[in-house]
Input
Amino acid sequence: MKKLALLYSFNTQKTSRAAKIIQEEFGGVLEEVNVEDITVKKFMAFEKYILGVPTWFDGELPNYWDEFLPDIEELDLKGKTFALYGAGDQKGYPENYVDAIGLLANVIEERGGKLVGFVSTDGYEFESSKAVRGNNFCGLALDFENQARLVKPRIAKWVEQLKKEFK
Output
């Protein structure tokens, strides 16, 4: 497997906690990159990516992703593969649960990137989400507030799926 980047904000709580579990499940082989310090050159140095993108407020991207988005919108991502994960709150924000995953996924696909790591919406309770495609999320949706006990098993299952899809 080619070098895989794990991009997330090192200053987040839940996204960082999930990143640590993802890194453990991959056996420590991921190159961790703080998305708050990302440059186009560093971003383009990889072929395979796992991006941590929590949803802020009423379905928004965090500032650091929002600020880097114009750069991504100018890139050719053909030949690059992406898996997305993010945290949200199904009960507190049921009308835009993990929307940020969907927002970033749309840009990646528009620029020619390939998405992997789709996860069934079964077992989640929310009203709507920009991250839903058919009966799946276009990434791993995590809810530390309402389904904390499911975080680790969902990550473990997702990483096993990614190991196959990233080959």
Summary: The chain has five helices and nine strands. The mean pLDDT is 96.
